[in-house]
Amino acid sequence: MATLGTDSLDAGTEVKTACPICFEYFKTPRYLPCFHTFCHNCLSSYILSTCKSKENPVGFPCPLCRQFVPAPSSLGEPEKWTELIPINTIIQALCEKKDQFCDACRRANEEEVATDWCGSCLESLCAFCAKAHKRNAVSQNHKLVSKAEISKIPIEFERQALCNTHSAPVNYVCVDHEELCCAECLFTQHRKCNQVDEVEKTAECLLQSDTLDRLGQKIQQYEDCLVQAKTEGEETIKYIDETSDKILEESTELRDKVLKHITNVVETHFTDLAKKVKEEKERLVNFVDTVSDRKQLVARYAQTLKETEKTPLPILVQDYLKIKQQFNDLTKLGLHRSVVELHSDASKELLRILECFQLEEVKMMTVFLPLGGLDFSSARMKMVCELPDSDGDVTGGCYLENGDIVLSKNSSKECLYYSNEKLERKNILKRPPKDIIRMKPSKFLMSTNINGKGHIEYCDFAEENIKDLFVTKETKQHKRLKQDIPV
Known about the structure:
Layout: H1 11-17, E1 30-31, E2 37-38, H2 40-51, E3 59-61, E4 68-70, H3 81-84, H4 89-97, H5 103-107, E5 116-118, E6 123-125, H6 127-135, E7 144-146, H7 154-158, E8 172-174, E9 179-181, H8 183-186, E10 196-198, H9 199-208, H10 211-306, H11 313-331, H12 346-356, E11 394-399, E12 405-409, E13 414-419, E14 422-428, E15 433-440, E16 443-450, E17 453-460, E18 481-486
Antiparallel strand pairs: 1-2, 3-4, 5-6, 5-7, 8-9, 8-10, 11-12, 12-13, 13-14, 15-16, 16-17, 17-18
């Protein structure tokens, strides 16, 4: 960030001539209603950055004190505001001088520390020159301000109404354009206007009439709407926060339940798998032991039958009969070997949850209503009257200035005219009407649709013949103009 040089400035002057945003000497300093001054470019960048997120901005807070600054003009166009904020000519002159000496003494090649500032001459004066300045006939009405009070000078400029074009004091008000104007504007831009009054006269009329009060009442009503809108906005933010927290809490609770349920299901599946595996393994272990015993038995039989040479004959016969009998009994025991297939669809079912399960998208419904308008979505409707023969496909209609009603019935090709809630006239038309609107006291538009094309019929007739609106024959008296337009 740039720093302000202090070689020729004391601490007090440095504060007055340094922009609080960029800390450089002021460049085209502009002051706000709170009398804080900033560089033109710094203030412009600040306004644009502050207002970029707002819809149709109407002002901005001061970068220092945060006091709200109304838009000087052109609501919703912050890029134009900085040019309309007044220049602090005193600060600008101090920045150009960059010292604290008396300007009058400097012209005499002398150096005296300035103690006062002349707002008319835009010069610094020492105590002696300030005294002479007040005694001079030309400058005796100039207002001198102490250097210590120099920051308060913009107050006087703020209270002056100046012409936007010529920066001169305004003396007149153009009523036609509702603009303040100086003498030059009066004879140039507003010389053809019908009413141009003096500012004092206009001010007296405003004070004596109730114009200010009526405008104040309208502003108060609008302020009440703004307060209500702000309250509703804050309540809506609170509602969104509370509802979102509730949704998160419910979703988190349900998520935990779902995870717990899935965990329990999977654990049950694991338990069932372990139980079945254990039972089948125990059976297979018993089967293997049984087969091993029988294998050892038949191996012993085979060995006995091979050792017949050293066996006595009676023992041989005895062993033969015993082995034959036991072998026949062994083969009748019915030993069965098992074929086992272990299978589970749990993984596919869990995978299906991952593939198919998806939460519904969050829905945020927002309805925009004009400030101070009516919310018909929550309004209570009350029937005022029921018009006879108005059932069926009534596709359009309009109110007349005298309170009468005109309706169009499409399928029956009828237009119904009601007065005081009674059906006064029913006209059969050539084409089925879609809608009818009143433009002016004697001018109407009626829309129809034939063969996929829309027809707009323009009717012009005398006010006293209002009930003859539904004449469908082309006559010179009514001069009906027809224009086909695509639907």
